[in-house]
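Title: Prediction job returns without error message
Component: structure pipeline
Severity: low
Priority: P3
Assignee: unassigned

Description:
Job completed but the reporter wants confirmation the result is attached to the right record. Sequence as submitted:
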Amino acid sequence: MAKPIMAKATAVWLVDNTTISFKQIADFVGMHELEVQGIADGDVAAGVKGFDPIANNQLTQDEIDAAEKSPLHKLTLKFNAAAVGEEKRRGPRYTPLSKRQDRPAAIYWLVKFHPELTDGQISKLVGTTKPTIQSIRERTHWNISNIQPVDPVALGLTKQSELDAAVQKAAAKKAAEGSVMSDDERRKLVSTEQSLGMEAEPKIPTAIEGLETFSLADDDDDKEDESTLVDADSLFNLPKGGGDDEDEQP
């Protein structure tokens, strides 16, 4: 069921201006009944200004009158033709001014940990422009030395489900191209839940990396090498002197 915009402020207005039950208001705005009761008691949404759903084309007066007469009547959000297809809007999303300064950090994180994502995908995820993404990819951004990668989900710039969907789409494209992926790349191309459930592949320690192709010689070679060794006695054993080798005496 579709919910009204500014749900809490709408609930405040309905509590202050109508006799509709808490349960009806809670069902309409998507809140818990106790929260609506808390609004009436002044414990919840203190200082929140009411948002008139009639003036803002979300409810009709007839709908409110029907709800006041019957506690079983469920409020229905007024159909707004202008809002149809809004969830399918294409292009970069709007980013609030308070979060725009966090976009470079989010872009840097996506470029670093998900290089398979296209500029268009990153643009839709965090609401930025392709030149900005390109400058961070190429490290030509004017503030690149001070930018630290931060997860865009943690910054509130995108949802985890949206990030996972983009990553899975990139994974499908990568698989269709038939390119070979390493273990690290394979983890980057799956969702967070799938990545945590995967078994790690054994890796060679960095200290001995590159030596994995070397092996010890066979036993036969060892025996052959031992037979060719010369011990110290045979090396320094000088021939015994004989009569023929002695200098003749005058």
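Comment from assignee: result matches the submitted record. The two ends are 131 Å apart (CA to CA).
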